[in-house]
């Protein structure tokens, strides 16, 4: 067993290092790592076909419980979390349908019109809109479209979009921490431990929006002086050049249908603990309805081509590698170490999980870290008898908020910075971290106080 633990740990570390190096697209090392884990560890060292079957977890897809676990039932699985895969895939299809209709550009232009294209109010409402949308739509998608419209408005109104984009990124990750479907780490945590949308919104959602208000004041204080200086020199007639929101809608029929599908999905997510539907069912339903609404087989195929299949492959490979660490009991060793240094004290464990998650997620992608830590906190709860729920909320907050710390900490950061640089607005590590690190530390302090007051 010791040899298999060492080998599985080495496979995991090599995969992680290659992902961090960013020399390969991240699905490649994840899938290769998963394949090596199956061949070398499961079959070569453990000689266990059962370990392979448990980790691949394909049989779970064909059970009624997978699609309809029932009201209040747990959706917890070992190995590949197919609930997460199906849900994210379904949301990707739905979002592509919404984007194709012009929904996101229309919404951004409409909000900009409401504040009369004034830059400081624009900063505030775009931050709040970024946080709100990220509660229901993947933060990567939110930033992709929000940053693009911000750049468009910046060119028309003659201001630097970088401060606004940095604030949008921060709020997207913060808003994503408020719900189960807002950020990939939360989807992993929620589906692995059987939490509902309501569980997240009443636990992480409370502190996320307290921190959101504080963050709005922080970024306005940081950028308002620069922005007002630009506004004083701005020609008021520039606002006449901004396109009307209605021009963003490319297909009114699809726009209406995709908006209705989005609202239906939100309602189903909010009520899924009551209805008994799994989030996999909700994702599949959203995808099917979107493809039907596209109007033709050709359009449906085009939407399917736009789905980020590489990210889904990344999740599959990642779950297999983490499954290897579970099968060889490596994660039990990690859990016992955290328990030892904390002395079995819940306050200490919550703070360790929160800040360790935050620091690691600022350096490496928060998705693999969350997937690795879920079984760790389960083992801590089993061995100490301490509350698993509070550890889960600490993990969710740490991975989501800590990912804000650097340009590579979360996928939304990479996308936002890439959009800005593609349009000619360079974002250096120094400029990013100058604002993101103090804001991240401020929010983590708020989260620390919240966790201690509420759960200890």
Structure description:
- The chain has 22 helices and no strands.
- The radius of gyration is 22 Å and the shape is globular.
Helical coverage, percent range: over 70%
What sort of overall outline do the alpha carbons produce when their principal axes are compared? Answer: globular
In what range is the share of β-strand residues? under 5%
**SS summary, helix count:** 22
Distance from first to last alpha carbon? 37 Å
Indicate the mean pLDDT: 87
Total number of strands: 0
How does the major sheet shape up?
Answer: none
Give the topology string: H per helix, E per strand.
HHHHHHHHHHHHHHHHHHHHHH
Radius of gyration: 22 Å
Secondary structural class: mainly alpha
Unreliably modeled segments: none
Give a quick summary of the entry.
The protein has helices spanning 2-21, 27-45, 49-56, 64-67, 82-101, 103-114, 119-133, 139-157, 162-176, 184-193, 197-201, 204-232, 252-275, 279-293, 297-306, 309-327, 330-342, 346-363, 366-384, 388-402, 411-422, 429-455. The protein is mainly α.
Can you give keywords for this protein?
single chain, 456 residues, 0% strand, globular, mainly alpha
């Amino acid at each position: 067993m010791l040899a298999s633990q060492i080998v599985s740990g080495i496979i995991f570390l090599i995969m992680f290092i290659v992902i961090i190096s960013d020399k390969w697209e991240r699905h490649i090392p994840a899938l290769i790592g998963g394949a090596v884990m199956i061949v070398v560890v499961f079959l070569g060292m453990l000689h266990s076909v059962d370990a392979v079957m448990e980790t691949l977890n394909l049989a779970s897809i064909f059970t009624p419980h997978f699609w309809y676990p029932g009201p209040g039932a747990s959706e917890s699985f070992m190995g590949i979390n197919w609930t997460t895969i199906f849900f994210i895939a379904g949301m990707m299809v739905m979002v592509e349908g919404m984007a194709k209709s012009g929904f996101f550009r229309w919404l951004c232009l409409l909000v900009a019109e409401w504040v009369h294209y004034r830059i400081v109010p624009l900063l505030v409402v775009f931050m709040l809109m970024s946080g709100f949308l990220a509660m229901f739509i993947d933060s990567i998608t939110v930033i992709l479209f929000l940053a693009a419209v911000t750049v468009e408005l910046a060119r028309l109104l003659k201001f630097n979009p970088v401060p606004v984009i940095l604030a949008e990124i921060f709020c997207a990750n913060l808003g994503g921490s408020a719900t189960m479907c807002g950020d990939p780490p939360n989807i992993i945590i929620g589906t692995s431990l059987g939490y509902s949308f309501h569980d997240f919104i009443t636990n992480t959602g409370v502190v996320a929006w307290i921190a959101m208000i504080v963050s709005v004041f922080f970024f306005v204080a940081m950028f308002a002086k620069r922005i007002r200086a630009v506004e004083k020199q701005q020609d008021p007639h520039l606002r006449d050049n901004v396109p009307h929101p209605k021009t963003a809608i490319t297909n009114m029929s699809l726009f209406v249908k995709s908006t209705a599908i989005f609202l239906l999905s939100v309602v189903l997510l909010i009520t899924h603990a009551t209805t008994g539907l799994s989030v996999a069912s909700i994702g599949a339903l959203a995808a099917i309805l979107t493809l039907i609404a596209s109007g033709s087989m050709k359009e449906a195929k085009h939407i399917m081509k736009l789905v980020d299949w590489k990210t889904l492959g990344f999740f599959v490979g990642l779950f297999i590698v983490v499954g290897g660490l579970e099968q060889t009991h490596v994660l039990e060793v990690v859990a016992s170490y955290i328990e030892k240094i904390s002395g079995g004290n819940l306050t200490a464990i919550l703070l360790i999980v929160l800040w360790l998650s935050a620091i690691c997620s600022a350096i490496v992608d928060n998705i693999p870290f969350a997937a690795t830590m879920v079984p760790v906190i389960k083992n801590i709860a089993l061995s100490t008898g301490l509350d698993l729920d509070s550890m889960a909320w600490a993990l969710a907050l740490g991975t989501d908020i800590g990912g804000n710390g650097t340009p590579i900490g979360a996928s939304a950061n990479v996308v936002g910075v890439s959009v800005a640089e593609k349009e000619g607005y360079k974002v250096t590590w120094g400029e990013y971290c100058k604002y993101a690190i103090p804001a991240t530390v401020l929010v983590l302090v708020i989260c620390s106080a919240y966790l201690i007051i509420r759960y200890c």
